[in-house]
User: What shape does this take?
Amino acid sequence: QVQLVESGGGLVQAGGSLRLSCAASGRSFSGYGMGWFRQAPGKEREFVAAISWTVGITLYTDSVKGRFTISRDNAKNTVYLQMNSLQPEDTAVYYCAADFSVNFYRNYAKVDEYDYWGQGTQVTVSS
Assistant: This one.
């Protein structure tokens, strides 16, 4: 049984930083992909960043490039999202997700691509 557990959310002022963690367990993640998504109230869940577990290739949505960094620690089976220069529009529930298909590089930004999801962690940025 795959489990993804996010942590690290909270309340921060605009311009501040947070680091989210996603602890993964239940099977080998080697060769597959992990993603971070977010969902603001009244909006659809949207792609934020993704990383290939083995090679470490990183992918970002345009609005977070240069501010957010996704990384992974293979030994700890944990994926991180370092978020700097946070803005009020970054306020959302952040979810990590695991993709065990062979289509990761083609579909990494699609919600439907991912097989497992964490419970989410709230990030609130005040102005």
